[in-house]
What we know:
Chain B is mainly alpha-helical. Chain B is built from 23 helices and 3 strands.
Amino acid sequence: MGETITFWVLAVVSVGAALGMVFNRKAVYSALMLGTVMLCLAVLYAVQDAPFLAAVQIIVYTGAIMMLFLFVLMLVGVDSSDSFVETLKGQRVWAVLAGIGFATLIILAVGNAIFAPEVGLAQVTAQGGYIRSIALLIFTKYVFAFEITSALLITAALGAMVLAHRERLTDKPTQKDLSRARFLGDRPSPLPGPGTYATGNAIDMPALLPDGSAAESSVNRYIARYDVEHDHLPDDPRLAEAIKHRAEEDADEREIAPRAEEQDAEAEVRDAEETPNEVTK
Amino acid sequence: MESEIAQITQHTGGVIGNAWLMIAFPLLGAFILLVFNRLTDRWGHLLGVAMSLASFVVAVLAFFELIGLGEAERRRAVHLYEFIPNLDINMGLLIDPLSISFALLITGVGSLIHIYSIGYMAHDEHRRRFFAYLNLFVAAMLLLVLADNYVGLFIGWEGVGLASYLLIGFWQFKPSAAVAAKKAFVVNRVGDLGLLVGMFVIFTTYQTLSFAELKPIEVENGTTLAIGLLLLLGACGKSAQLPLQSWLLDAMEGPTPVSALIHAATMVTAGVYLVVRSGAYFFPEGSGAALAVAIVGAATLLAGAIIGCAKDDIKKGLAGSTMSQIGYMMLGAGLGPAGYAFAIGHLITHGFFKADLFLGAGSVMHGMNDEVNMRKYGGLRKYMPLTFWTFFIGYLAIIGFPLLSGYFTKDGIIETAIEHNQVLGWLAVLGAGITGFYMSRMVFMTFFGQKRWAEDAHPHESPTVMTVPLIVLSIGAIFLGGYLVLSNRLLLFLAPAVGRPEELPTFHFVSVPGITTLALVAVGAGYAWVRYAQAEVPVVQPRGSFVTTFARRDLYGDALNESLLMRPGQWLTRIAVFFDNRGVDGLVNGLAAGIGGSSGRLRRIQTGFARTYALSIFIGAALLTGALLLVGTI
Amino acid sequence: MTTHYLVLSGLLFAIGAMGVLIRRNAIVVFMCVELMLNACNLAFVTFSRQVGNLEGQIIAFFVMVVAAAEVVVGLAIIVTIFRTRRSASVDDANLLKY
């Protein structure tokens, strides 16, 4: 009875989390949902006489793999949320149809199957207990496969290093190079800081120039975009106008950026972003 | 019938046993000159001459060894090696009076022309190659006449065809020479086809191609008539007889020594050799095949003579004359054993005086900056006396001036012809008269009359290396005919090989045909004297009558070939091309276009979107699962 | 209970597959693949208990190892692609086509 309750609770949670993972726009949320599913599964393993696997599931999947996913998400850009407009014609319809069809088929198959009474693992683990039995299998019958997995892991680690490593083709720019670039650019001075007002001193507030107009460049364009997308615009129409304008500039740049495919160009962009002064090309 | 020919017996040892050296020497020469190429540029011509002379020496030694044997034993076969064991065809040489006569002519005259070429080709940068081809020709021609079976003969036959092609086109930078070479080659192929098919019929009928195993026949039947006509076709191709005569005049594009050696003295006589060699087997006396040979000969001798009358190019005039003289030989070869002897006799003397004439013409051209138009000669007698006298001797010999070579052999043919066939005989007499005219015209235009030279012409006598062969040849042109014909020396010598006539002919110095011939020749020569020595010869060719144009155009032989063969061939080709383009290509291209089009549409499936591919995989997996379930429930 | 676990496994697998087909963010697609693998593992474990054989669990264990290796390499590839193309969308890498 306890198992049944556990199952139903966890089944509902895991299916809901899985659906949430698929249908959430934000990759970070998806990752968290996946973590939920994995934890549920770990409990289900434990319930089904597989405590070793439950531990491995939590340590390897929820611990290591999910962390890796989150790291990569940070690296690739947390802000990049998917747009939900489907570009491939019919893809979504067919995908849902196929998914439902497949699930139906599995359910039909499993439902039609006639299972013998559960044997349980009590018999096989009677001698020496559960962990010993698992160890016995891994290190005797499957020792060869086990050794091969070690080779696989080493290869994967090496492969990841090779793939993620970036060869530096040019010298790292020195301070001199950077300042030269800055002075050759259209803006030698640092960008103005955000404005400080009685009503707010947030980083998304444009500063005012001596003539009273809003300094667009004082707002980070990503922040401006966020503000526009989430309707966090300040009440003052002048400032709101400046933020909107800044967000439009950002949109224009994003149009262009993906086309710059060369690594060098990419490096320059990143270098420029690293510097506090936005030395754009 | 007394036309029995002697049995062929096997021979080993001695010079005859090593007669293959005759072929090997020039072949080795050609091999060295062609393989070592530029390395031999300096002494290549000397090697060529030496190889030819060595071959001549072997031929002379073999000749003396042969006449040392009894008359009935003078047909010696020398086995060399098994050639095509499956068909029981062996390669061997047949040394008999006929082949040795040819071998002596080929190597003797050939050597003289080799020597002459040293001087004639002195300024040609490819002289070494020229000698290589000449040596190749000599080797092939010797194989042709010495082989003891039709296969060896055919190999030599094709070999001389090749050498002829290479030498006509020797100056291949001239388009006319290249075209002439091609024409000679193509026309010869027609003849070769006849020879080849003839050989096939012989082999299927008798299961052999060896002269030793073929049996002489007395009475003709359908098969031998067919074989005879096919061989005659081959002979016509090689010997430039009607209707395959058209290549010979163009062949004069080659260097003059080539014209002398190949297209006058030796190669073009291969057809006569073929007919005479096959005479006992397929052209019995009085047979239809033999009559065809004689008719072809008579027709060609007239055609050649008429063409010779109209040509202003000295070499083409001589080429027409060659056609005509070979026509005489063919006529003789169609008359049985008595005719054979005169035909071969005329062939040998013709080899001398025609080579003499050609080399003389070459000497004139050499002195006149390679000018060939006789209208631009005139009065050269005083400027190149040696050339003039040797040429003049050749001229007298060819028109049959009494007691010179041509007189004996040509009269022999004419009288034998009249004995056998009045019509052909008197046509030959008429031909002799025309010969008197056109040869006199040639001599008078070249050596007599006023000077009509080009402005930069400085005629001079040729170097010794060129005149000595002329002198040797003209000596042959004077005496050889009498020596061979009087007391039937050649006839008796050849008898073991070609048979002996029922009664030996005696040579009549005074006879009706002889006197008539002489009278006609005199009339022709006199007319030529009036027109070309006394009257002024226009430098520019006058329009001439219809007959003249007819002759100038080679009796419209080329036009005939063009309209009968070339145009229909072209139409056939066009139809084939049309069918190929529309039918075959249409099918293939249509298929290709269909596949291309459908694959062009099909490839649109490959969108490059990984998700699309994943979807198809997933749907496939779902369908597969469904199928498995379905199978499971059933 | 076996049936329940298996149905849950099938549902999770189908949801993961749908996610692979619907999502464009390469990382999310990758997560969905992981979900499918997990669904399979659940089936293995369930069958292991059903037939009373530990080998199902061993296989599930190996699947986890392989999945770990796969994630490492896969994510490295995604990072590399993102670095060169400034995009983690699977639809942007579509040059290999007709």
